[in-house]
Amino acid sequence: MIMQQVCVLGSTGSIGQNTLDVIARHPERLAVYALSAHSRIERLAAQAAATSARVVVVADDGARQRFLNAWPGGAMPEIRVGAQALADTAADPEVTSVMAAIVGAAGLPSALAAARAGKRVLLANKEALVAAGGLFMRTVRECGAELLPIDSEHNAIFQCMPHGGRAQAPTQPAPGVRRLLLTASGGPFRAMAREQLDHVTPDQACAHPNWRMGRKISVDSATMLNKGLEVIEAHWLFAMPEERIQVVVHPQSMVHSMVEYEDGSVLAQLGQPDMRTPIAYALGFPERIDSGVGLFDLAAMGRLDFELPDLERFPCLRLSFEALRAGQAACVALNAANEVAVDRFLKHQIGYTRIACIIESCLERMSAKAMPRPDTLDEVLDLDAQARGLASELCISGS
Ligand code: NAD
Ligand code: MG
């Protein structure tokens, strides 16, 4: 068995920590080569010591100093600094597999560098595909990278697809597949009275009924913008037209998604809501390896419910479909405006229901400028910066 040398981008986050948990169960096949973190530097030092990582990447010299101060002793990893070092480490010749688990479009350059270097890319960072789906998938194809989705829905769909043990970037829908059925929990506000939504707090929005995740994706789950990002993600990963992707609300989060075939068969992947399952699937692919997830108790669950999403309660889902139809530039704007609005909401600077308003206004104003389709990383980042600037103004102006 070939030892995989794994680079975990965003190792201190929710996905990063779950990844290290799975890696630690398989010392015979998985080793940590590099780790990266943005703010929780003390946790990074503890992780690097526990995994004997050879490289760590931090954002700036201040973080480097904090890492040195927190280092518990033993063989010190090489410390690399800055965004370029992050991309270079993802492409490091020693690395075989890259877990892209940075949150937001900030993770795009390093995820793209991993694809460009032909690595096995385990993609949790959905914002990378939303902002640059065409570019990212083309890079995977042209550079011979392998792409394994970590997002539980896309991992479920991948598992239900015919893929012949190869993880490639398709250019057309898999033969025989009619539709993708993307399940959504509906988040913490699925059944809350509509007038109460004006007053919900960041902590309420982050209290997801089924999953423990980082705060940004937790708010996205509450607005269901997360499901919108996932529709766009599924469009790119599986080369599936938007009208053949259906969102179904399934509050128990046990069916992680489904693939419907031409003959009427529907294949579903089920499991406990625990990200170690898709992470272990991708780390072991095409073999199945232990994830630490316990037995599945269907009888204890009793029932599984399904319903259609309410697009009035969840305007962000409608806006995502509109952005996907409008094209790549609108998707960049959708994601950027959301990142800005969610950040302001988490800082108590705007109310929850303003998130959707800011995204909608940003999309309207950006589309009035007749945005060209961004084809390169620089063009994507440029458009992303423009949309962030506009969204920040909208947050302040209250319009
Ligand atoms: P998190 O907030 O818990 O962790 C984010 C990680 O990214 C941290 O290690 C942080 O240090 C790093 N980071 C943040 N900003 C950065 C920057 N500007 N530059 C470099 N590094 C930075 O987030 P998470 O919940 O682990 O989510 C990570 C990604 O995985 C997101 O794109 C999310 O949508 C996706 N995802 C997460 C889950 C989940 O269960 N948590 C499920 C599906 C998909
Ligand atoms: Mg998901």
TrEMBL record:
Its EC number is 1.1.1.267. It catalyses: 2-C-methyl-D-erythritol 4-phosphate + NADP(+) = 1-deoxy-D-xylulose 5-phosphate + NADPH + H(+). It comes from the Bacteria. This is 1-deoxy-D-xylulose 5-phosphate reductoisomerase. Signal peptide: none annotated. Its cofactor is Mg(2+); Mn(2+). GO terms for biological process: isopentenyl diphosphate biosynthetic process, methylerythritol 4-phosphate pathway involved in terpenoid biosynthetic process. It holds the Pfam family DXPR_C. Belongs to the DXR family. 1-deoxy-D-xylulose 5-phosphate binds at residues 126, 152-153, 185, 208, 221, 226-227, 230. Pathway: Isoprenoid biosynthesis; isopentenyl diphosphate biosynthesis via DXP pathway; isopentenyl diphosphate from 1-deoxy-D-xylulose 5-phosphate: step 1/6. Coiled coil: none annotated. InterPro entries: DXP_reductoisomerase (IPR003821), DXP_reductoisomerase_C (IPR013644), DXP_reductoisomerase_N (IPR013512), DXPR_C (IPR026877), DXPR_C_sf (IPR036169), NAD(P)-bd_dom_sf (IPR036291). Residues 270-388 form the DXP reductoisomerase C-terminal domain. NADPH binds at residues 12-15, 125, 127, 214. Residues 147-238 form the 1-deoxy-D-xylulose 5-phosphate reductoisomerase C-terminal domain. Residues 6-133 form the 1-deoxy-D-xylulose 5-phosphate reductoisomerase N-terminal domain. GO terms for molecular function: 1-deoxy-D-xylulose-5-phosphate reductoisomerase activity; isomerase activity; manganese ion binding; NADPH binding. NCBIfam families: Dxr, PRK12464.1. Keywords: Isomerase, Isoprene biosynthesis, Magnesium, Manganese, Metal-binding, NADP, Oxidoreductase. Catalyzes the NADPH-dependent rearrangement and reduction of 1-deoxy-D-xylulose-5-phosphate (DXP) to 2-C-methyl-D-erythritol 4-phosphate (MEP). It comes from Allopusillimonas soli. Mn(2+) binds at residues 151, 153, 230.
